[in-house]
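Quiz preparation item.
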């Protein structure tokens, strides 16, 4: 069923239903009348990933220009820069939380109702050694990628072998 604008009889493109004091009020307005009432629609629909990225940028508490110091921060474990996080909305490793603590704290507090520290469980069988091993693997992978990019294939081969040994030791321990 096509509706006409409540104000000017043009085809309605804006439809709203409000309940005021238990009474249902329907509004059918054209674009111009909706804009006059302050209810105009945006003509461009953004994809969800763009909306989420814009949300992260707006709520991360880092509304600073591109050349600002917080955008130059980098995680010492995985090498991710804060500017990359803002673009992709993904952190690289657990160390990113510590490296980006200041700019992320506002975002995390809003997302977790003023909480910004994890209070969940830690696996009993893993303990701290598991976290250290995972951190070491992450660092070695970063060094391996850097060696390949620098075309230092001897170092890359050694790191690959060391990484393989470290990962296989961990697989045997958890079995």
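Solution:
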């Amino acid at each position: 069923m096509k509706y006409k604008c409540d104000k000017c009889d043009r085809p309605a493109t804006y439809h709203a239903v409000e309940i005021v004091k238990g009474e249902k009020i329907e509004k059918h307005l054209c674009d111009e009348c909706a804009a006059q009432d302050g209810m105009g629609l945006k003509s461009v629909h953004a994809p969800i990933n763009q909306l989420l990225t814009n949300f992260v940028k707006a709520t991360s508490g880092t509304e600073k220009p591109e050349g600002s110091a917080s955008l130059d921060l980098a995680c010492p474990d995985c090498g991710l820069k804060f500017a990359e996080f803002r673009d992709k909305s993904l952190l690289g490793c657990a160390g990113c939380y510590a490296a980006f603590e200041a700019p992320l704290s506002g975002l995390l507090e809003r997302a977790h109702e003023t909480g910004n520290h994890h209070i969940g469980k830690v696996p009993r069988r893993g303990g701290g050694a598991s976290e250290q091993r995972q951190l070491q693997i992450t660092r070695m992978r970063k060094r391996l990628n850097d060696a390949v990019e620098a075309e230092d294939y001897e170092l890359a081969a050694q790191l690959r072998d060391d990484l393989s040994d470290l990962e296989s030791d961990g697989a045997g321990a958890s079995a």
